[in-house]
Amino acid sequence: MHPICLCFSTGRSGTTFLAHTLTATYHPEVDVFHEDISEFQSNPRCYLWSLDERDFAPMRKNPIIAAHLARVQQRSALRHYVDVGHTVTPLVSLLLATFPGRLRLLHLVRDPVEASASMAVRGMYHPRYEGMEGPAYNLPPNPCQTRCAHPEYASRWQVMTPFEKNLWRWGEYHLLAMAIHERNPEVPYLRLPSENLFKDQSCSRIIADFFGLPKRDIVAQPTYRNETHPNLTSSISIGDEWRRYVEYAYILDLATLLGVPVQQDGLDKKMKKYAAPTAWQIAKYRWKVRLTPQWWGRKLRQLGVMPHAERKRVG
What we know:
The chain folds into two domains: about 5-275, P-loop containing nucleotide triphosphate hydrolases (Rossmann fold, 3-Layer(aba) Sandwich); about 280-315, no CATH class. It is built from 16 helices and five strands. It has helices at about 15-25, 40, 45, 55-60, 65-75, 90-100, 110-120, 160-185, 195-200, 200-210, 230-235, 250-255, 265-270, 280-290, 295-305, 310-315; strands spanning about 5-10, 30-35, 80-85, 105-110, 190-195. Strands 2-3-1-4-5 form a five-stranded parallel beta sheet, with helices on both faces. Helix 7 packs across helix 8 (about 160-185). The protein is globular, with a radius of gyration of 22 Å. The mean pLDDT is about 90.
């Protein structure tokens, strides 16, 4: 049996980049996934902070989760199983109990202000998704329904902004990761700031070694940075609500403890990409999307300046 390598994060923490890097380096020897189970399937609203055997019985009876456990068992029997997506987080304790002695846990931490803003502009906790449940929608946890470390926010949940709700979620995911590590100190565990993935090329090598992957040169995949685009913030913008982070002292303390203290210097500039873009930024993005080789080919054909052979190749 091979190691089962999982990742704690809140999402928006470099895991897409990491998955592509490991895939480029190790495929097909290693099974590398990014969110091998969807958030709809792992259901953090229901299963977050499920830590004990009494919690696991109903989880094992869930056919979706049972199928995922069977998949992990089957895949890991053949080769290393690596899933660096954040969506497996609610199931980590269950996986520890199901596959004792085989898990390795990576913990990627991003600054809470940027991480929460990035999730908010993608619609996490946006009012348009309230009451919508199903495969096309997330089931994010909330203190009104979910077992959590900070249930006191239930009383004001309805007046909190999406950004504030994502701050709360950031805290819950990282507190859970720490709690699982404290309860299972024998399980290999590595915590890193997610920004190191982009700042230090050796970071991917460190993670690969921690996962026990074969020694070889890492194939960098810089094009797979899953960055925020203006077309997202044109429809969902956090505006100035990010400034409310100062009201969440426990989040700031936790960020410092985890090695990603919120740096106020330059924060205003960083957060502009999560506010509504200017008309010029939107126009620039639209033209960038529009100006494809096919678009140029059509224009040149219309102008009659493209040789016939070239027209055929482009068309």
